[in-house]
Amino acid sequence: MNKLTSSVSESITRDLALRIIRGELAVGLPIPGENELAQQYEASRTSVRNALQVLGAKGMLLIQAKRRSIVTPREQWSFLDAEVLSWLEDVGIESELVEQLMLTRLIFEPDVAAMAALNATGHDLAAIEDALATMQSGQKNNSAAEFEQGDLAFHTAVLQSCHNPFLASVGNALSAAMLLSFKQTLEADLQLTQEAVQQHRDLLEAIRLKQADSARKCMRHILLSAAHKHIWREIPEKYQHFF
Q1: Which residues on neighbouring strands pair with residue 62, listed in sequence order?
Q2: Residue at which a domain ends, from 49, 78, 107
Q3: CA pair distance 240, 167, nearest whole angstrom
Q4: Is residue 164 part of a domain?
Q5: Contact between residue 125 and residue 207 where contact means Cβ atoms under 8 Å apart
Q6: Domain co-membership, 48 together with 127
Q7: Where are the beta strands (DSSP E) in the chain?
Q8: Is the Cβ–Cβ distance between 59 and 87 less than 8 Å?
Q9: Pfam family example for this protein (predicted)?
Q10: What tens-digit pLDDT sequence spans the chain (243 residues)?
């Protein structure tokens, strides 16, 4: 595929994805065929076919030989795919999806922090410290991008401190979703993130002291604090005993 074809195909892919997310192309129904789409987008059938294959690989379309592709239910979409998350964000991510993302992090990350406290090396601690410094720099410079970069690096470094290849693979898959979570819960005024920075500092100290239970509690506190501010005023009753 040459660069021009690739660029056209990417544009078609994104537009079709947004139409699917907005419900303009309905779940369970066939979308227009390749010839019709090629006319709509004034593009070659090759570009259209490439776009459909990408959406099929991401679980958004059911590709059928010699038949029109069908929009699949959301449950089949690859929600950990960076492009899918980006498209959802472009349309306007739903509050329910943000809630489900936070629940996923609450299930996963506190125990990761506890494992990190047991296994972190000096090199790991340095990486966590560097990430915290980036968060502090972003706060000082009022740079949301820098703060988010540091936040993601912090949680990634904690995950890597577990020295568990299976957890690392799960973490890599979750990284795009975690970045989206940071964006959804980041204070508009970064000067209001002082509490969050202190919470991350407390977690670093618990890991440094190899206090697994304390690290677990610190991570849970980080996540629940963000959830209380931006998602729930109180944890939904059905989850209260879970967390």
Answers
A1: 70
A2: 78
A3: 26
A4: yes
A5: yes
A6: no
A7: 61-64, 67-71
A8: no
A9: GntR
A10: 555 556 899 999 999 999 999 999 999 999 999 999 999 999 999 999 999 999 999 999 999 888 999 999 999 999 989 899 999 989 988 888 888 888 889 999 999 999 999 999 999 999 999 999 999 999 999 898 899 999 999 999 999 999 999 998 888 888 888 878 777 777 666 777 888 999 999 999 999 999 999 999 999 999 998 888 777 766 777 776 766
Please report where in the chains the tokens 């568990």 appear, as a residue: 164
Name the residue with tokens 């076919």: 49
**Is residue 146 located within the same domain as residue 68?**
no
- The domain that holds 74 is classified in CATH as 1.10.10.10
DSSP 73: P
Spatial separation of the C-alpha atoms in residues 116 and 16, rounded to whole Å: 42
Q: Are 44 and 1 contacting, i.e. CB atoms less than 8 angstroms apart?
A: no
Q: Which domain covers residue 110, as residue numbers?
A: 93-242
Angle at 129 between CA 124 and CA 132, to 5 degrees: 130
Instruction: Find the helix packing angle between 165-185 and 212-230, rounded to 10°.
Output: 30
Structure tokens at 187: 């204070």
Fill in the amino acid letter for 142.
N
As a whole number of angstroms, the distance between CA 34 and CA 43 comes to 10
Q: Are residues 122 and 193 in the same domain?
A: yes
User: What is the b/e burial string over 182-201, where b = at least 16 CB atoms within 10 angstroms of the residue's CB?
Assistant: bebbbbeebeebeebbebbe
> Would you call 22 helix, strand, or coil by DSSP?
coil
